[in-house]
Amino acid sequence: MTELLNVQGLSVRFSGLTALDDVSFTLEEGAVRAVIGPNGAGKSTLFNAISGYVTPTSGSVHLKGRELTKLTPHEIAEQGVRRTFQNGGLFPALTVLENVLTGLHAQTEGSFLDILLGRSKALKSEAGNIHRARELLKLMSMDHMADTRAGDLSGGQQRIVEIVRTVASDPPVLLLDEPAVGLSPVARAQMMEIIHRLAGEKGVGILLIEHAVELVMAAADRILVMAAGARIAEGTPEEIREDRAVLEAYLGHS
Ligand SMILES: Nc1ncnc2c1ncn2[C@@H]1O[C@H](COP(=O)(O)OP(=O)(O)OP(=O)(O)O)[C@@H](O)[C@H]1O
Fold first, then answer.
1. ipTM of the complex
2. End-to-end Cα separation, the chain, in angstroms
3. What residue spans of 149-236 are helical by DSSP H?
4. How far does the centroid of ligand 1 lie from the alpha carbon of residue 111, in Å?
5. Which atom of ligand 1 is nearest to the CA of 229?
6. Domain ABC transporter, which positions (predicted)?
7. What's the gap in Å between 177 CA and the centre of ligand 1?
8. For the domain with range 1-80+172-254, which CATH number is right: 3.20.20.10, 3.40.50.300, 3.30.565.10, 2.60.120.620?
């Protein structure tokens, strides 16, 4: 499998506190890697360091061999590492389709004004975008919602649309921060199915922070377990289930 992301010895210190301590892992094309660990383990700091929101004290992040470590969050997103935020904010008055299109416009040829003025190149790429957005919504089983206002969707549906909007521009790597938090059991299962499809059918490499351990066990190919900023275990869900250090330090029993 093609390696997308390579994180080597990444550390972050905040005035004396080591929030991230020498963490290394890789993420391959089409793979789902979960990051789990108790509160304060350093999961968000890891995401922030990869996406440029905090500056690592040491270590490096490469995407397909290209170093991202010193780039701004905007540049890192442009290179193809995209993330969703908790409460990422769709435009409630726009339809689902229009929201997904906002994720595509950044890379469309021609401006919104060109589209309004009916300039043919812009119109052609807009038609292409609409086609692409509809295909993606279909892949995510959300095509029947295309013309619904985003503000009228349930919380779980909004989060799915946010993910569709984020992947619309075809990023190789997607960072998902607790996509299933607060969702009903049915919506959680749907979210995990979507994560599977994005990886399996579109080849996106997905890094996932999630507290619901059972969901992680079902959705991830590999799991990184953190505690106090450091990696305490790494492996397949089966390996993690059997790992003594995880059972003792994280799950609280031996
Ligand atoms: N900007 C910051 N300044 C100072 N300390 C910080 C900052 N961000 C995080 N920390 C500290 O770094 C440590 C790791 O926090 P982090 O938020 O990465 O953990 P987490 O695993 O994401 O936790 P949670 O599951 O609660 O979100 C914590 O002790 C936290 O208080």
1. 0.94
2. 35
3. 155-167, 185-202, 213-219
4. 40
5. 14
6. 5-253
7. 14
8. 3.40.50.300
